[in-house]
Amino acid sequence: MTRIKYFQELFQRYRRPGDLVFAVVFLLFALFLLSQLGEQTKWVKRTKWYGQPSLWPSIAVWGMAVFGAFHLLGSMVSPRIPGRLKEVVFWLQSLEYVLYFLAYVAIVPLCGYLPSTILFALYLTLRAGFRRPQHLALASLFATCVALIFRGFLQVKIPAGEIYQHLPDALRSFALTYL
Amino acid sequence: METFLSGLQILAQWEVFVALAIGSIGGVIIGALPGVGPAVAIAILLPATFAFEPIVGLTLLLGIYGSSMYGGAIPAILINTPGTPVNALTTYDGYPMTKRKEGHRALSLAYSASFFGGIFSVVCLIVLSPLLALIAPHFGSREIFLAAFMGILLVVVAHRGQTFAAGMLACFGIFLNTVGLEPVKYTKRFTFDQSWLSSGFDLIVVVLGLFALSQAFLLLIEKDHAPGEAHVQGNMLSGMKELLGMKRIATVSSSLGVLMGMIPGVGEFTAQFLSYTYAQKTSKTPDTFGNGSPEGLVASEAANNAVPGAAMIPLLALGIPGEALTAMMLSVFYVHNVIPGPQLFETQLDFVMALYLSLMLLNVIVLVFLLFSTNLLLKIIQIPTRFLGMMILTLSFIGVYSLRNSITDCAIAAGFGVFGLILKRLNLPIVPIILGMVLGGIMEVKLRAAMAAVKTPIDFISRPIAAIIFVMIIGILVLHIRTLIREQKAKRKPDPVGPDYEHSSQQG
């Protein structure tokens, strides 16, 4: 019994809600990679061990599995703080913003950087709960500044929007270059 | 002297000054905003700097890196919320001083100590440069391999109470670096026959996801918690005089900052911990530490500000980044085909000198800026956190998309954003992943090169520098094991890494 207690103390650490879920998923991922080592990396003939393409992936994946197993062990013997499900739901909530972000990425080449950025900033501001006109105006101003500074002034590589092709001649080349 | 003047000449361009001013002032603002931090800002700006000359891009990023901790001290002292995780220790003594209506004194002391630490580290760098130029060429493949390995080892053991998590995440970083087409034998590694995996994971995409996108998601999902109002009055230079009375603490703390900054994988937290412990143990009033001790404040601020300058040493001299921010800067070098390492000190010492001088200049710019703008910064930091989340997410797009205009990159970055959010919520460290990615690549290349000239295993450590690094590695392992045994024997568990920001393991 004393030995078990000593063993527990050896691996005990502070553990936040959701720690066990993460530790299990990470270890499973490491074990999956471990099972794929032979398939996904090659041991090349007439090459010394230090030049083998599979050397570093093997070190990395074995390291992930061994450390991951100890991390899981630590999680299992450490005092639990309730709130696991709530925490996992919190993680999943981020997927909503991932979707918005990817939608923004998809519309930039179509609508152009400036209009897309203004739309994105306004939508996120509303989604974040800011409904007052000042907030919306600030979000639009911020988006406009970002687009003008990075695409117009710093000429960062962002494609022009297809929508700009339909602008009048005088405005088109300006929009294609700066907006 | 000739190198010094040549370095000055490189700096004497308007673009460099503009970059330095924007970087320094922007860095202070970013540092003062709780929830942003220099890592987020550097990750976002990184691709934009690729279009600039290396010195311009690097001064901009250095400006942010070197000045963010100045800004982070403001909310730490006045509203008990550290602007950057590195300023957490500042709250211990800074905020109690504010509660005693000594906020102005605490701020001016923090600025003075930060300035002292920053300048001290640059002076050390300039003095050490000839020595580094002498030693650096003796670093061959095996020495760099061993130094990179030591960096990984240190980043793992430095996360006390989270060693296993840091180990598995560092290995995950090494794994990420191996994915894709291997450049020597042209075999595929963990691509699962997917074309999007063939080119591997770009460091910048991973960095942007883990630092910037994760922070944006976190701020957007969490409840809004904008810092409260605060105001401070008085001459900010008055702390300089008081600092003179604490020369010993400021000097020792800055020295510890320089030393810890130079060692890959260690960084600000260890420097602060050591200097704070030193200051407390040698103080005539150790009981006041944690309750508003000016000495504690000086120790913490001088140590953390001495680190950025020193962290440039392994990066420039060996091409080995010691932490996440210098790892990001490494990519600026590579984009411009400037390879940091021993040759840089041999052939481009003036460039190195220009970087040192820009570090010195940024400290002056920041101090002058802060003397007049502390109250303005206190207004800026009241931006609601969810609004800040929207701003970071909008800006992150530029960082990822402008790299290759790739939707896949954006999707990967978003994936790492979710992963980073989970790590942040669990208070697991992100830095080991980045260092694993960078140092893993260095280790693979250098081991291959080194082993070609090695006949027996002992040959690997037969050269003096290699032998010294090897002894250091053994020493680190022995010390770590000894500490663990002592902790167990004393029935004392390692400090739990709690939910409070005081114990945060997130850097940058």
Give descriptors for this structure:
heterodimer, A: 179 residues, mainly alpha, 7 helices, 72% helix, B: 508 residues, two-stranded antiparallel ribbon
Radius of gyration of chain B: 22 Å
Work out the helix count of chain B.
Answer: 21
The share of residues in helices of chain A is over 70%
Report strand % of chain A: under 5%
Query: Percent of residues of chain B in helical segments?
Result: over 70%
Q: How is the largest sheet of chain B built, in terms of strand order?
A: 1-2
Greatest interface (CB-CB under 8 A), with counts per chain: A-B, 74 and 75 residues
Model description:
The complex is a heterodimer of chains A (179) and B (508). Chain A has 179 residues and is an all-alpha fold. Chain A contains 7 helices and no strands. The mean pLDDT of chain A is 90. Chain B contains 21 helices and 2 strands. In chain B, strands 1-2 form a two-stranded antiparallel sheet. Chain B has helices spanning 2-11, 14-32, 37-49, 54-78, 88-99, 103-135, 141-157, 163-178, 195-198, 203-221, 238-244, 247-262, 268-282, 294-318, 324-335, 342-347, 349-380, 385-404, 407-425, 431-451, 464-489, and strands at 180-181, 188-189. Chain B is globular and about 65 Å long. In chain B, strand 1 and strand 2 form a beta hairpin. The interface between A and B is large, with 74 and 75 residues.
